[in-house]
Design brief:
The chain has one helix at about 1-25, and strands at about 35-50, 60, 65-80, 85-105, 110-130, 135-155, 160-175, 180-195, 205-220. With about 220 residues, it is mainly beta. The protein has 2 domains: about 1-30; about 30-220, Porin, CATH 2.40.160.20. Mean pLDDT is about 85; it is low at about 1-25.
């Protein structure tokens, strides 16, 4: 009789544990990253800027830095092997600038001459590749970058600027805090390329930036 009661008790416990595991499994489905999203982001940028000539012999290294913020939107598709591919667009307002002493040649500054380089806004169109670990999505991303860059002569007339086109690459981590709320941390490197300006500035300008960004998005 004791053996029978023990066997029945063990059977009940096993059945209960199996049922509990089944309920938990049914209540916690694996998160899917497939879908569109739109979000807000903010961050900090620092970079290497260079202007050559400046209306005559000379050059200046500006090393701009500052804060930026804006919006982003994209679409992800998660494959059966948990690889996630996607495309994304973003645009940010930038308060990124830096000033430098103008040199006629290395070691020979032009007294009283300085120039400021400003990044006013930037944007990018990128492709993304990641691996889904349930609600975590580490990824890499790269594509085309755009930026509005101005050069200001701090000692007189001669300001000029234009929209530059270059490339960007980076890596980040998305986390699905809920089924619809996505958090992000990202680093990216951007080379806005070089552009030559004719008279009256007769200058060549380039800018490269490093950026760290945080974002929050709504997934549809």
């Amino acid at each position: 009789m004791k053996k029978l009661l023990f066997a029945l008790s063990l059977s009940l416990l096993t059945s209960s544990a199996f049922a509990a595991d089944t309920i938990v499994a049914e209540a916690a489905p694996v998160f899917s990253w497939t879908g569109g999203y739109v979000g807000l982001q903010a961050g900090y940028a620092w970079g290497d800027g260079r202007v050559d000539q400046i209306g005559g012999p000379g050059f200046v290294d500006t090393d701009p830095d500052g804060f930026l913020g804006g919006v982003y939107a994209g679409y992800n598709y998660q494959m059966s092997n948990n690889i996630v591919i996607g495309a994304e667009l973003d645009v940010v307002y930038a308060n990124v600038d830096g000033s430098g002493q103008v040199f006629a040649a290395p070691g020979f500054p032009i007294l009283g001459a300085s120039v400021t380089e400003e990044l006013n806004w930037s944007g990018a169109a990128r492709l993304r590749l990641g691996y889904a670990a349930d609600r975590f999505l580490p990824y890499i991303a790269g594509g085309v970058a755009f930026g509005d860059i101005d050069i200001n002569n701090n000692n007189g007339p001669g300001s000029f600027g234009d929209t530059f086109t270059g490339w960007t690459i980076g890596a980040g981590l998305d986390y699905a805090m809920t089924d619809n709320l996505l958090l992000r941390a990202e680093y990216r490197y951007t080379d806005f390329g070089s552009k030559s300006f004719g008279a009256p500035s007769d200058s060549s300008v380039d800018l490269k930036t490093n950026e760290v960004r945080l974002g929050i998005a709504y997934k549809f």
